[in-house]
Amino acid sequence: MMLEVPGAAMLEAVTLTKRYEDGVLALDHVSFAVKPGQIFAMLGANGAGKTTAINLFLNFIEPTDGEARIDGIVTHKEPLLAKQRVAYVSENVMLYPNFTAVQNLDYFARLGGKTGYTKDDYRSVLLRVGLSEDAHNKRLKGFSKGMRQKCGIAIAILKDAPAILLDEPTSGLDPKAGFEFQQLLDSLRTEGKAILMSTHDIFRAKEVADIIAIMNNGRIVMQEPASRLLGQDLERLYMQYMAGHTAAEAVA
Amino acid sequence: MLRTIIEKEIRDIIGSSKFAISFGVCAALILLCFVTGAVNYKTSQAQYEAAKAENLRQMEGLTDWFSVQQHRIFLPPHPLASLVSGVSNDIGRTTEVRGRGELNADGSRYAEDPVYAVFRFLDLEFLFQVVLSLLAILLGYDAISGEKERGTLRLSFSNGLPRATYILGKLIGSFLALIVPLLLALAIGSLIYPILGVPLSGIDWLRLALIILAGLLFVGAFLTLSVMVSAFTQRTSSSFLVLLVVWIGAVLIIPRASVLLAGRMVDVPSVDELASQKARLASQLMEEDRTRMSEFNTPPAAPGEDFEPDKMLKLFNTFMDSLADARDKQMAEFGGRLNEDRANKQQAQERLAFSIARVSPSASFALATSALAGTDMFLKEHYRDQTMDYQQEYGKFMKEKTGLNPGGRMVIMLRDDNENEKPKEIDPSEMPAFKYAPPAFAESFGRAIFDLGLLAFFNLLFFTGSVFGFLRYDVR
After folding, report:
1. Does residue B370 fall inside a structural domain?
2. In the CATH scheme, what is the homologous superfamily, with its name and number, of domain A1-85+163-252?
3. How far is A99 from chain B, CA to nearest CA, in Å?
4. Does the residue B408 lie in any domain?
5. For A15-35, what is each residue's pLDDT tens digit?
6. Nearest-by-Cβ selection for A90 from B16, B155, B161
7. Based on the structure, what is the number of domains in chain B?
8. What DSSP string runs through B327-383?
9. Is the pLDDT of residue B85 over 80?
């Protein structure tokens, strides 16, 4: 089931399939598209295939079939070029504990090919993600998970890529940090970023996403614009799909 | 991008508390090594000078050179031997020179001070082999698997970063982060020698520089090995465990096992066996000479001539000399054959042991540094050759002084004691001095070059292994 959206997709999965060496089918002919200015949320249980999809976009693994494209570039054919157009935030941002927040930002910005940033640029992006100024020059070893997550998002912002991949970004964040994160995603969408987010957080997905997909056993079992799900109990819907109901059964 | 990774690696390593503590300890040990080395050298030098003086003092008051039956010479200490002791403490340092016959050095440092044999010395060789190789492992074991556990590998490779650039940056960065501070500590340590008044010639400085180079190549081999193992394992705990086992094998087991193995494969007769064979022949020859001595008859005095004791003694001494010459010749031939056979077997055993041991960088390092310091296996042979040369010089001198070949022979002398004439004392300073010349630099370097090359090869091998391992690494 592929959602028809007008315009060019920035992130695109075309019958993306991944079967691991041990025979496990982690992703089974998955197709979706995320356009600039859209947030695509993938919901699903552990092992549903969400992280595998992100790994395929980052070319950490090669697809068994199909393609992952970033800005039209097939990731497993031109991985270095494709990765220049995407930023990534992992579930548990660790970074370098002996470096300060600014030093971490500087290193990853340079790695992303951005060499012209000044300390003021780093400070302003850290303030934008909600990290107070007194923490900017402190080593990360003393940071909480929420503070590290903010640094991870700051790194993604500094890369200034047209697409962003977020792997369980709100996992373990307190409600305040989760809300701040939601606001940040809104502003990134406004800037025209195409965002693919995997999450367990149904509430956050409903609040922030433009398109919501539910994944189960490596397949997308539901993919709908969030506007169409307004008024529906997404949690109940999710549980029904997880229980193996068909789309018709679930909607009914 | 390469520069960014190198800079990050250096900053990450040097900024860690792990590095600060472990390097602080190592730097202190390096300085301690040079201080103890200098003190040790000065003590050994003082003991050497005292032994030489005592040797000459014992000749004071002697009134004829016949009384000097034995003369002791000593292997002088060398400043670099205090840093890389090699076999210098194990071989005998004192040799009794008789003027002829075989020479045996005894009185090794460990024989004189057995307490040092229990724990051995804290020298630069030990420090590199045991402590600094562990430091290299400590800094390199989590180079790749640690990044994976931290999640920074995943984040790094979400960028358009070629794997070869990343691993190259890692290797160069970690190498510089370890080598530059070590070099600094070693350079400061080296200055302790002249500050404490230990004399080092230009060639000695060159030797020391090459010893340090060998040490850095050795530490580099363990660092690149650590990165390589880290690039083949997914967890830091696995990487550390593998490296610990490899370290035990390379540093503690392989060099020792190679000697045992070579000993089993090539049988070398013991010195005692040879001595026993030589003693049997000597005893047999002495028995034959005794028979000849009993048959010695002085020609009867011609009619009208008086009995001339001087003439008789001269004849007897000449006869004894000829017996001793013939006996010595036979003993020399027989002993030479036995010694040559043993030396050949020993060389074959050594070659085999070293060939097996060179599987480990630790063995290559020990062989290279001891050759450069002049304290390798060659030292014993070199010292023995020089004592043999000196013995010839000593023999000539004694013959000049006594008119007879020296060497513990039985001679009969008649002395006309004139109580009114006080005998003149001998002047011990007339005796030729034993001047030991350490192995020439070119000779030492020639023996070290293969092992230096091997250490460089280990670096290259592990470097290539790291790149190869990482190109296939699962960065997820």
Report:
1. no
2. P-loop containing nucleotide triphosphate hydrolases (3.40.50.300)
3. 7
4. no
5. 999 999 888 898 999 999 999
6. B155
7. 1
8. HHHHHHHHHHHHHHHHHHHHHHHHHHHHHHHTTSHHHHHHHHHHHHHT-STHHHHHH
9. yes
